Amino acid sequence: MTKDPAQSQPTCPIARALTHVGDAWSLLILRDAGLGLTRFEQFRQSLGIAPNILSRRLAALTEAGLLERRAYSEHPPRFEYLLTEMGRDFGPVLHAIGAWGRRHGGPAPLSVPVDAETGVPVEPVVVDGPTGRPIGSFPIRLRQP
Amino acid sequence: MTKDPAQSQPTCPIARALTHVGDAWSLLILRDAGLGLTRFEQFRQSLGIAPNILSRRLAALTEAGLLERRAYSEHPPRFEYLLTEMGRDFGPVLHAIGAWGRRHGGPAPLSVPVDAETGVPVEPVVVDGPTGRPIGSFPIRLRQP
């Protein structure tokens, strides 16, 4: 981003969210953290990302409150990164992005999320919680504050 | 992105999706298209985005199949951008991002999606379609292809 979109659109919760999760590397770091990765070297190997970019993204996600940095060694000083409640709460959104990617991302074989106990494939859908109606199946408008 | 994450992670549907929707401007253009904006100047004014960046994002979203470019004037030649089915299918994900933004994006007053007919607030939640269980409420693992 050359500019924070939340500045020009102060009432939009999407723009507000994208201040923290508006780039692919940050989203993939959150994905990997959800899969149990915690250490700089684990993220670097998983993502094939340049160390300086990874450092900046980890610092930004920590600063934003999605990750918590914790020392796991004092000599030498070493840190791991754990999802906070705010970061874990983004997990379902990542599953929704993945479901869209499976539908529209191309023909190659892709991984599938399954219930860890039963092995039954999971099919993430965004619904209106109170009514269960799928978002997109009825007209929605935005009410300004 | 300095590098396409789908290249190093060919089986991940999230990485695949982020090839197309992995930056904040693209996501905000999709949001605005979902709100009915179609023309270059409308997007430019809504987003406060530099024209060259907007041009590149519109071209990339069109190339990826999320937007369709259509002439609405021949003299002078002018184009509008409309969501394709693939692009409309991303709308529920944007609502899920917005719901997270309302929960975690800070204190200022934010817009709220409401049922266009009843005015009742909509509460986007990501669930497993077949069972209705919220994603995040039970353990999920990834099955590789």
Notes on the structure:
Chain A is of the alpha+beta class and 145 residues long. The first copy, chain A, folds into 2 domains: 5-89, Winged helix-like DNA-binding domain superfamily/Winged helix DNA-binding domain (Arc Repressor Mutant, subunit A); 92-135, no CATH class. The first copy, chain A, has 7 helices and 5 strands, in the order αααααββααβββ. A two-stranded antiparallel ribbon of chain A has the order 1-2. In chain A, strand 1 and strand 2 (78-83) form a beta hairpin. The longest helix of chain A is centred in the middle third of the chain and has 14 residues, at 51-64. Chain A is globular, with a radius of gyration of 18 Å. Chains A and B meet through helix 1, helix 2, helix 3, helix 7 and strand 3 of A and helix 1, helix 2, helix 3, helix 7 and strand 3 of B.
